[in-house]
Design brief:
Chain lengths: ~220, ~500
């Protein structure tokens, strides 16, 4: 196994449904090799839409691995090309990663030399909070987060496979459904939002869910 | 606001193609009188707004509710409860379906009352309930879809051999009679709710197919009914379409007089779903006040939307369909007729609400892996071919409906063994999806108009059967798309590994 010692970051782009493939294609032309697209739901805030009962809208989340040395070249191009810094176009943020394994390539290991080595003038005022809860509870997470000052979130639908959670109904194996809520917010709000979610959803209780916070390196399009 | 604008654009683009084709025909070979044309355009506008509101309603009420219901049923973990609940769902949805009431009325008439209308409605609903239950139980016991459909269609084939031939086309029209605009989204989201928890790849695959299984129950029930009617005098001709005369000639009147009956139909179709929701809300969902209110709002949207587009389609599209069908067929060049038949079928289905609901569900379940546009184009080609083949049948005298249906369903069953299971489910669902509003209004009246002009063809019998074709052809096109998809994606996979 070769160890490649460059540093890597994960680029997240959250966009309206249908734009994901376009962004990924664009990024591939810029030299990004690995990426994937996840479907999610974004919360919307508009009294009129709320009156109609429309509370969420389909989103796509593009995840791409990129070398830190190239990131300052690639990210601004994506931001410009898809107008991500304009309102309502989407969000882009990057999170440094420690190491990753390329499973398509015999598990070749890539290790980041130093996490966060490219600090300096960059925008590191944001955190990304991930909350994993049982299906249907995402709206309470968003509610709790908004009460503490967050501005909405993105919900990803997933299935959980905890140690004891797989069960069988007749001869059908069941994995419980989960919602993942992704919230990007200013660092100074993180503690308040995490506490608010923790209290409202009894996360500390067994099986209550998981919260983790990651530090965002660069962020665009957050209002 | 962006959200609404985008939904509006979707609705607009689904109705524009058919409007353009009709306008082109109007200015070239099929001049349409002004009153009918204005009615058609008003109908198109009503359908655009109806579609917009209806799809929002389905999004916030019908789909989440079917989803929750599926999960809740599964959690009972009692096979008898699952059987009982599913049977009752299937039965109650079918028993109020307005189209089934019309078909049952026709059978009553054709058999001179020997098979009573209420008997038909009850037995078809039992068939729908029973097959829906089997469809829900199928994944629980790991029976593969292709095997299930092989058994189901073998039973149908044997029944069709015994049944009097007059009934075969009525029976194969049944998917259209049992799957209205509300039942398709409801049943398919119920399936998604039931099986999205399933571990592994099967969770995608099992999310589809329930609509197809349910509709095969209706076909079986009608065939069984007709076997009992063997000795009944069938001298009455089948006159399905006598009730489509338009009593009012004023433009506004022709729409307004439809509204009360359309409202009643929609209400009766929506009512069992709302009642089921309320019962489960009290006993097990226990949604928060906001979520509960949202679903109720969704039901209101669904109702308003359905009333708007049903009024638009019935009041504006049927007349123009008959005119175009009639005028086109009188042309010397039969190739043109077949070509326009294909084109009209292909664009008309774009305005079908269920097609949008199902393609969105497919995108959601496969995380966008299968694009909705792919599914919509398969529907479009399938329905186009169905109309073209129906037109050919009215031109070639010896061609019987079963000449299409037998090899068609045979091929579908065989193909299902070679196509990824996900596509098998989607394909067999598509029969019920395509035979919705547009098939019953615009396409049917086109076929009727076409059959009325051709010498030696009986308008009533030959117009009939078009629905059977619309139920069959998308199944085939989607299976073939599935086959192409399989071949292409396996190629793509090896290329990736080489990199």
């Amino acid at each position: 196994m070769n160890n490649n010692t460059k540093s890597y970051e994960l680029i997240y782009v959250i966009l309206n449904f249908g734009m994901g493939s376009k962004v990924y294609r664009f990024a591939r032309n810029l030299g990004i090799k690995r990426g994937m697209i996840i479907l999610g739901k974004g919360t919307v805030k508009s009294p009129f839409l709320e009156f109609l009962g429309i509370t969420d809208v389909r989103k796509e989340i593009v995840l791409m691995v990129c070398e830190s040395s190239k990131i300052n070249d690639i990210v601004p191009q994506i931001v410009d090309n898809f107008n991500i810094d304009k309102p309502n176009k989407g969000i882009l943020f990057t999170i440094p990663i420690k190491d990753f394994y390329d499973l398509q390539n015999n598990g070749k290991k890539y290790v980041s030399e130093k996490v966060n080595k490219n600090g300096g003038a960059k925008n590191t005022m944001y955190d990304a909070i991930f909350v994993v809860v049982d299906k249907g509870k995402a709206e309470f997470v968003v509610e709790a987060a908004n009460e503490a000052g967050a501005k909405g979130g993105t919900i990803i639908h997933a299935r959980g496979a905890g140690e004891y959670e797989i069960e069988k109904i007749f001869s059908m194996e069941i994995e419980p459904e989960k919602d993942i809520v992704l919230i990007i917010l200013k660092k100074e709000l993180t503690d308040a939002v995490v506490n608010s979610i923790k209290e409202k959803l009894d996360i500390e209780k067994e099986g209550g869910g998981i919260i983790f916070v990651q530090e965002v390196d660069q962020a665009y399009g957050i209002l | 606001m962006n959200v609404l604008l985008k939904k509006f654009r979707d609705a607009l683009f689904s109705v524009i193609p058919i409007t353009i084709i009709v306008l082109i025909l109007n200015f070239t070979i099929v001049p349409i009188d002004n009153t009918s044309l204005i009615k058609f355009l008003i109908g198109a506008v009503l359908i655009i707004f109806g579609l917009l509101i209806f799809l929002i309603g389905v999004d916030i009420a019908i789909i989440p509710m079917g989803d929750m219901l599926g999960s809740t049923i599964l959690e009972t973990k009692s096979i008898w409860k699952i059987v009982l609940i599913c049977f009752l769902f299937g039965f109650s949805i079918s028993v109020v379906e307005p189209v089934l009431h019309i078909v049952a009325g026709q059978i009553d008439y054709v058999t001179a009352g020997a098979i009573a209308k209420s008997l038909v409605i009850v037995s078809v609903s039992i068939g729908v309930g029973a097959l829906m239950t089997l469809g829900v139980l199928r994944p629980l016991f790991n029976i593969p879809l292709p095997i299930f459909f092989t058994i189901a269609y073998s039973v149908i084939f044997v029944l069709a051999l015994i049944a009097p031939p007059e009934f075969i086309s009525i029976s194969f029209d049944a998917p259209g009679a049992t799957t209205g605009v509300l039942t398709v989204p409801f049943i398919s989201s119920l399936a998604i709710g039931l099986f999205s928890k399933r571990a592994g790849k099967a969770s995608e695959e099992d999310s589809f197919g329930l609509v197809g299984i349910t509709t095969s129950g209706a076909i079986m029930a009608l065939l069984v009914m007709s076997i009992f009617a063997r000795n009944v005098d069938l001298s009455h001709t089948i006159n399905q379409y006598t009730n489509t005369s338009i009593p009012s000639n004023s433009i506004a009147g022709s729409f307004l007089h439809l509204v009360p009956s359309v409202m009643l139909e929609t209400l009766s179709a929506l009512l069992p779903i709302v009642i089921i929701f309320l019962i489960f809300q009290v006993t097990s969902f226990k949604l928060s006040k906001n979520s509960f209110l949202n679903i109720i709002k969704g039901f209101v949207h669904t109702f308003i939307g359905a009333v708007l587009f049903l009024t638009g389609a019935n009041g504006g599209f049927m007349e123009v369909g008959v005119i175009i069908g009639g005028t086109l067929t009188s042309l010397e060049n039969k190739i043109v007729v077949i070509l326009f038949g294909f084109l009209l079928g292909a664009v008309a289905i774009l305005a079908e609400p269920s097609v949008y609901v199902i393609s969105k569900q497919i995108e959601d379940v496969t995380s966008g892996y299968i694009k909705g546009s792919l599914i919509i184009s398969a529907f479009s080609i399938g329905v186009g071919l169905a109309v073209a083949l129906s037109v050919i049948r009215t031109i070639v005298p010896g061609l019987k409906l079963w000449h299409y249906l037998l090899p068609g369903y045979g091929l579908a069953v065989v193909l299902s063994y070679f196509v990824p299971n996900l596509f098998v489910g989607i394909a067999f669902d598509s029969g019920g999806v395509a035979t919705g509003l547009m098939a019953a209004t615009f396409i049917l009246s086109f076929a009727q108009g076409a059959a009325g002009v051709i010498e030696g063809s009986n308008a009533l019998i030959d117009g009939f059967g078009t629905i059977s074709m619309i139920a069959l052809m998308p199944v085939l096109t989607l299976l073939i798309f599935g086959l192409i998809f399989k071949v292409k994606s396996s190629k793509g996979g090896t290329q990736k590994n080489e990199q």
